[in-house]
Specification:
heterodimer; A: mainly alpha; two-stranded antiparallel ribbon; 11 helices; 2% strand; B: alpha/beta; Rossmann fold; 2 domains; 4-stranded antiparallel sheet; 10 helices; 14 strands; elongated; binds adenosine-5'-triphosphate; binds magnesium ion; ABC-2 type transport system ATP-binding protein (chain B)
């Protein structure tokens, strides 16, 4: 649909409203992930890590940092974006979005942009928190930021899709709980998949999170489970899949319009 | 006057299989106030929803000031403002912020002076920094009206604007509508009440069971709808209407205890005096009389049967 110019005011309105929502719950948005992450450091880094010593020449405490950030990034992106779109559906205020002269792409930029911003900020806060526990030296800061941004965007879109699909608050939390958290734990967040026996090593390669964590870890330590190019390509592919699904949702009005 | 909104063959069958709208054709004139009158479930909200993009139509096309509502949706929708039937509001947002949000969503930059004016017009000025959830129902409705106007729409839809509204808000609303009308805004509202349509509208469309039965200038319609009923409560029930009373076209109700006469209140000769003189002549005694306006249902039944006759 080529008619009319980009509705920048509309995108900004959504973005601002979503950010305002986050600021209203600032403490719980920040405190929960920071406390959770600190606990991981104490348990995995301190208690277990002291026995594990090193993984591929990296201290175990440092080794788990990229995985922990990814875990937060994935869960927060999904929950932020899914609630962002589910809530208007639930309260009925979605009528405004549907009746506005705003395109699917613009709506998504507003919601996903805000959700991704929030989880990026959280990711950086956790990075900062982790420097309190371990020494970190990031080898490829540019690539690290790129992975952060791409992952936040992709999983915010995924969250947006879940929010559109969900018909109740239970459904909203079921995908993160049943899919994302297990995949992250099994995705090499706390170990290198090289440490796994076959066939689990091969099975792990079907887990998308492996590629995210691996690429992200590469940007820290210059080494990962798969090559960084494969990781990047994989995130790109996920991003396109989510984008395609969202376009389809708006074209058909799936679960948005009767 | 030219047409600002036109619906051609617009129909809607919901996924449940329910046919909510049957091929509606309708032209709304620029600057008019149009009332959509119909009972519960007639399809009023569905029709407005389709025009505003909330419901996908099963058939038909909609043109808004020359713009196709689907292909040219940006220009088309930028012209519309909608006050929904349900009080759907974002509980945690403050009043002014929610107006600014809507304005932005509809592609307009900030305009503080105009938003201030809206807040004052709708007596929301004191509440401008209050969270919406702390407002009463009537206040929420004011907020919804203000939101719908935040981007200065040319066409305003009011879906049952007077449901749950007190006298004061009703008065404020009439004042606002008069002001909007002066500015040239086209207004489309829905209602269950003939009186309300009569009070506000230039033209009235009557809708029932998804069918737009007729569209008329208000005055022409009021004449048509100005029927009254008189019930004659009999002392002794009748089993049949005597042939001598044929010219009044009476019906027997309530197991023969009531004679019902339907007459046109605006006609010069209602036929009542002659009927009342005739009854004692026939030895029919009565104890009381009741007159009332035909109910909306009666009117719909009349209109539907009239339409069928025309079609036949
Ligand atoms: N989402 C939906 N799915 C299925 N049926 C629906 C849906 N929305 C409305 N309907 C049905 O369509 C018909 C028309 O509904 P609509 O809300 O348009 O009526 P209305 O004229 O606005 O009524 P009211 O005066 O009660 O507001 C009703 O029978 C209703 O039950
Ligand atoms: Mg309705």
């Amino acid at each position: 649909m080529s008619v009319g110019a980009f509705n920048g005011h509309g995108v900004w309105a959504i973005y601002k409203a979503e950010m305002a929502r986050a600021l209203r719950t600032l403490w719980q948005s920040v405190a929960t992930p920071v406390i959770t992450t600190s606990l991981y450091f104490v348990v995995f880094g301190g208690a277990i890590g002291s026995r594990m010593q090193q993984v591929g020449g990296v201290d175990y405490g440092s080794f788990i940092v990229p995985g922990l950030i990814m875990l937060t990034l994935l869960t927060q992106s999904i929950s932020n974006a899914s609630i962002g779109i589910y809530f208007p559906k639930f309260t009925g205020t979605i009528y405004e979005l549907l009746s506005a002269p705003i395109s699917a792409v613009e709506t998504v930029i507003g919601f996903v942009g805000a959700a991704a911003t929030k989880s990026l900020v959280l990711g950086l806060i956790i990075l900062a928190t982790s420097t309190l526990f371990v020494d970190l030296h990031i080898q490829h800061p540019g690539a690290m930021i790129a992975f952060l941004v791409l992952t936040a965007l992709t999983f915010s879109m995924f969250g947006f899709i879940i929010g559109v699909w969900a018909n109740g608050f239970e459904q909203l939390s079921i995908v993160p709980a049943l899919l994302v958290t297990p995949l992250t734990f099994l995705g090499g967040a706390f170990y290198s998949i090289d440490m796994l026996p076959e066939p689990w090593r091969t099975v792990s390669l079907f887990n998308p999170v492996v590629y995210l964590v691996s690429g992200f870890r590469w940007s820290f330590f210059g080494q990962g489970d798969v090559s960084v190019g494969v990781s990047l390509g994989f995130i790109g592919l996920l991003l396109l899949l989510c984008l395609g699904a969202i376009m389809w949702i708006f074209r058909t009005g799936y679960r948005l319009k009767p | 006057m030219d047409t600002i909104l036109s619906l051609a063959g617009v129909g809607k069958t919901y996924k449940s299989g329910h046919v909510a709208l049957r091929s509606v054709d309708l032209e709304i004139k620029r600057g008019e106030i149009f009332a959509l009158l119909g009972p519960n479930g007639a399809g009023k909200t569905t029709m407005i929803g389709i025009v505003c993009g909330l419901v996908s139509p099963s058939s038909g096309t909609i043109t808004i000031d020359g713009h196709d509502a689907v292909k040219d949706y940006r220009k088309a929708r930028a012209m519309l403002g909608l006050v929904p039937q349900e009080l759907s509001t974002d509980a945690f947002t403050k009043v002014r912020a929610t107006l600014e949000f809507t304005r932005g969503l509809f592609g307009r930059g900030p305009d503080r002076a105009y938003i201030d004016e809206l807040l004052k017009d709708l007596s929301l000025w004191d509440k401008r920094d209050t969270k919406i959830m702390e407002l009463s129902g009537g206040m929420k409705r004011r907020v919804l009206i203000a939101k719908a106007l935040a981007h200065r729409p040319e066409i305003l839809f009011l879906d049952e604007p007077t449901a749950g509204v007190d006298v004061e808000l009703r008065r404020d609303m009439w004042r606002l509508i008069a002001k909007l009308r002066e500015r040239g805004t086209t207004i489309i509202l829905t209602t269950h009440y003939i009186e309300e349509a009569e009070e506000m509208a230039d033209r009235v469309g009557v809708i029932s069971k998804g069918q737009l039965l007729l569209v008329e200038e208000k005055h022409a319609l009021m004449k048509k709808l100005g029927k009254r009923e008189m019930d004659i409560l009999l002392v002794d029930p009748l089993t049949a209407i005597p042939p001598e009373l044929a010219e009044w076209d009476l019906t027997l109700e309530d197991d023969g205890n009531r004679l019902r006469y339907v007459f046109d209140a605006q006609a010069e000769r209602t036929g009542i005096p002659s009927l009342l003189r005739r009854l004692p002549d026939l030895g029919i005694a009565f104890k009381d009389l009741e007159t009332h306006k035909s109910s909306l249902e009666d009117i719909f039944v009349d209109l539907v049967s009239e339409k069928k006759e025309q079609a036949a």
